[in-house]
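[job 4471] stage=fold_predict status=RUNNING
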Amino acid sequence: MTATDDAGRGAERSRDDRALFVRYREGDSQAREELVQRFLPLARQLARRYQRAGEPFDDLLQVASMGLIKAIDRFDPAREIAFSSYAVPTILGEIKRHFRDRTWSVRVPRDLQELSLRVDRAVGELSESLRRQPSVTEIAEAVGSDDEHVLEALQAGGAYRAMSFDAPRGSADEETVTLADSVGIEEDGFDRAEDRATLARLLSTVTERERHVLRMRFEEDMTQAEIGSVIGVSQMQVSRVIRQALTRLRAAADGDPSSS
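[job 4471] inference complete, writing structure tokens
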């Protein structure tokens, strides 16, 4: 088959496409169905180009098909361009929107999402052609970016799919341990230990009698009258001891040298 024959077939197909679009614009729903079937291989090709691990191809094909239908509904046959030239950006826009809005577990900037998709695709292609894992520099050259942005895109790829806390770790032969079992929890014991150490240092700035009074008041929750009967002083004197001790403690906490 010669190039002239190919050109002739292409021109004939273009005329057929336009005839279908004219029929569709005139209300022929069957023409719309024929257009969908005619260009469905294009949608399938674009969906396969953007397929990645963990993303079902059927989902991508459905998204690409929706993009194809939108392109068919919006295309103006009076324009002097081939329908495929109009449809490809529309279909790719739907696919990219799908990845941006529906598949990322953690939202990352749009440009980083798109770069991550290009990087992921380039890694697969380079691994196949080089028979090894490509370097960051090789990936950067393939996607037209620099090493720093490629590293950022690779890191952002971890936000694409979240892992359930109930997912088991290790092999099936091992005792079932979930991811949640290995995740740390908030531990307030460290703060309490630090508070105790701080309090012990501050209490060293008051007298032993004052420490005894403070413990009875704030640890044992005794009244001032009860404390007075224990140490043999009046309630007023107990109040004065507590007030003076707290004043020294506050000064020590604020770093006042005179409290030492």
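[job 4471] summary: The two ends are 102 Å apart (CA to CA).
[job 4471] exit 0
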